[in-house]
Amino acid sequence: MNFLGHYYFDRQLQNPLFNTGLSLPDLFTTFNRKWRIRHINAADAPTIKVRFLTEGCCTHLESDRKFHQSSFFNTQGKMLKELLKKYQFDKLPFRPFFLSHILLELLVDRILMKKFPDLLPLYYTDLEKVTQQQMAALQDFLGFSNIDGFWKFFKRFREHQFLFNYQNNKDFTTSINHIFSRVKQPVIQGAYYTVFSQLLSEAEMRLTPEVLNIQHL
Predict the structure, then answer these.
(1) Contact 138, 54 (CB under 8 A)
(2) Nearest CA to 128 among 105, 106, 160, 171?
């Protein structure tokens, strides 16, 4: 779910189609959990524009694979699990492995947008350059139907620009709760809400130097 992380580490200058493709695997599965890209060859794309979008998707998948096997992911995941235990989020109804994974990915985006304030506006500018026709051609190539439905979802994503909400604890927690609701997990509320804000502040402080030392996702 680290949209900005993929953009920061893998974007190509003057290639908004490729850069948009870097976000599409997560957007596809958010829209429809069955929409997973497997065994696709960008060289088989029908046009150069569809190829750029597909190459971005494939780069996202490869970066995810490397990231989830990296020492950064393992080390910082353990650190976040320790914080979850410290703040008593390590027991049911919470799932520490799932929560630490989501926290790590979203906090990477939060740290990057704070350190590089021009990055997120550039990200959304690239998304705005993709047309409905180009997206429909990509979906046809990937075998994903409901072209109009996904385009409406994509337009809302780029117009609402909700990633800016990651910068403060209240809206960040709301974003976490949206994810939890979508996967039928209990949301953070009540007494846990204030404690979670404290956890976020400590996690960000400890993660920031580590994120800024990453060479690649």
Answers:
(1) yes
(2) 160
Q: pTM for this structure?
A: 0.92
Cα(120)–Cα(79) distance, integer angstroms? 27
Model confidence pLDDT, tens digit, residues 152-193: 999 999 999 999 999 999 999 999 999 888 888 888 988 889
Running DSSP on this structure, what letter comes out for residue 187?
Answer: P
Tokens read off for 12 = 């190509």
Which residues are within 8 A (CB) of 86 and not within 5 positions of it... i.e. 6 or more apart? 199
Kindly report, residue by residue over 13-26, the tens digit of the pLDDT: 999 999 999 999 99
d(CA 147, CA 43) in angstroms, rounded, equals 22
Structure tokens at 95: 């799932």
3-state SS string over 103-134?
HHHHHHHHHHHHHCCCHHHHHHHHHHCCCHHH
DSSP letter for 36, please.
-
3-state secondary structure of 188: coil
**Cis omega (within 30 of 0) on the bond before 16?**
no
